[in-house]
Design a protein that fits this description.
Endonuclease, Chain A
């Protein structure tokens, strides 16, 4: 289905927007991985993970993690905070958050059938 997907098992996308983004990456022959790494952001006093974040895509060609959010801007604050924590805890990690407006521009440019998706 995807020619440039680098995973061992077929990706199980959380929403339609992620699948459409994967199609754009494939269209441009960009190798990609889906949710290949989870970053531990916080642990409790016993060492148990209390907060973690798994970016949607990894683009090895650019050593870049990409998180796609199609939520309303008012609900994006939590994701922005997690991205900031990743940058603080893992300064060597390159990560970019694409907002709904960024995705809508891509969807319009590539004539994708975007459905409003607020599941993630």
């Amino acid at each position: 289905m995807f020619n440039y997907y680098m995973g061992d098992t077929p990706p199980q996308f959380a929403n339609k927007s992620e699948e459409e983004c994967a199609r754009i990456l494939d269209y441009y022959c960009i190798p990609w991985m889906y949710e290949p790494r989870t970053f531990v952001l916080e642990r409790d006093e016993n060492g148990n993970v209390t907060e973690a974040f798994t970016p949607d895509f990894y683009l090895p060609q650019w050593d870049l993690f990409v998180e796609l959010t199609t939520m309303k801007q008012a609900h994006v604050t939590k994701k922005n905070m997690k991205i900031r924590k990743i940058k603080q805890k893992f300064p060597q990690i390159n990560i970019k958050l694409f907002y709904k407006k960024d995705f809508l521009r891509l969807a319009q440019k590539y004539d994708l059938q975007h459905e409003a998706d607020h599941t993630k």
